[in-house]
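W.,

You were right to be curious about this one. When I first looked at the sequence I had no strong expectations either way, so I just let the prediction run and decided to look at it fresh. Below is the sequence, 514 residues in total, followed by the output.
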Amino acid sequence: MSRKTRVALVALCLLAWFGYRYVNEHARPAKKGAAAQTAATPVPTRMFGRIAFQPCTLPSPTGAPSVEAQCGKFDVAENPALPKGRRIALNIAWIPAVDDNRDISDPVFMLAGGPGQSATRSYAIVARAFREVGKHRGVVLIDQRGTGESNPLICDARDDETPTSHGPDAGATARTAAEHCRDALSKRADLRFYTTSDAIRDLDAVRAALGVDKINLLGISYGTRVAQQYARRYPQHTRTLVLDSVAPNTIYLGNDFARNLESALDLQFGQCSRLPDCAKPLGNPRERLNTLMTMLRTQPPLVTYRDANTGESKQETLTPEHVAALARMYAYVPDAAAVLPLLLNEGAKGRYDGLMALSKMLADDLSDQMAMGMQLSVICAEDADGLRSDPAMAGSLLGNVLISTLLAQCEVWPKGQRPADFHAPLRSDVPALLLSGELDPVTPPAYAEAVAKTLPNARTLVLRGQGHNVIGAGCMPKLLAQFFDSADAKSLDTNCLSTLSYTPPFTTFNGWTP
């Protein structure tokens, strides 16, 4: 794969639900055009309700095109009980409709994943999915408090605070890292007030300031939790819901990660067993992975590999954590997961350089892509008391280390308030479109089906061969626009989705067999 292709695949993983920190990169000012624009030319201000916007460019962390937008700020109280206390300047971007003269008073609010992602930073990656929606309807992005440029809660991890194994010291290391992050961030933030409930209060305040009565919510991954919570608290202002890669209110983030990954990998690896050109030369990927993990736990090899970013030759010990992280994050994107059978076959032959190089590239490209402080504020307040280790998953790829790490971190993290009905299913007549990827390793189709049971005007779609985050797949951009126009998911003609297909596994490093 070319560097551009690899980065693009990795970028799609940034919509993953959990695990990495967000880099604090500011939205860039719009580029100046013709020579008529000079440094003295005033930047035009455009009002949307009571919020002032100016031209800006939303950058992309990948090779995807940047997006021209309007950017503004809106102040909210950090602690709603102290309106004269510390304030948060929410970072907001607005992408006006192409047909800007059409009177559409119900924009689409895109809610980012994580928890911990920035909506303004991640939009360029998925902007293609809004190409039809954006013809007649504006899109609004809010960096949720604690992310992006809305007082980001970013933890600066020290080398001695990064767990290097799943051993008995992992929990203590994670706890120490959380303590240091807590102490640093507490100087400028009350960490109790960065939860989902705080975010939906902000969201409604922005809606009111924009002067719109009803809004369309499109949540991706963790953003589906935000959308459901908003629809429960503010049903009178919720016109439609699109939930992409659905996280039910009833789950506790983290409990099912290991089990869902195992199921997804079995489905993805099953593609190889059904194709003679893959199964014959590469063997059984699931067995290859199990054998490799067993070996790495007792005899981790020292591997010489070429750094994908610098081209330098380096040496490092390949650990189970390297392989588990690579398999997990690539599983989000079937186009990336297609290379795993080939890599695992190389490992079975004692050639580990590909696994190590891609693992290190993934870590480098994904580091600082999530605001870990905000993530802990969400999970520790909303999920920690429901996290449970699963003995049946002890021997799985992820095991129970994620659960034990989160519990250790939440022991020392300040906890906000969670409404009593927070984990109750959303019961609503709101028109809703629920989307799932057949091969999603974190939010499987069963999640969407469970949510739809209490939404009588909902429709679920499972996209064949797709992973996590599917709004841009096939004809979904067209269907999204039709749904927002009609507010009727059940009337959509979805036959166009039948053209979606599976990504064949790589049989060589040049790709799959034609």
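Here's what jumped out at me. The mean pLDDT is 89. And, maybe more interesting for your project: The chain has 16 helices and 13 strands.

Coffee later to discuss?

I.
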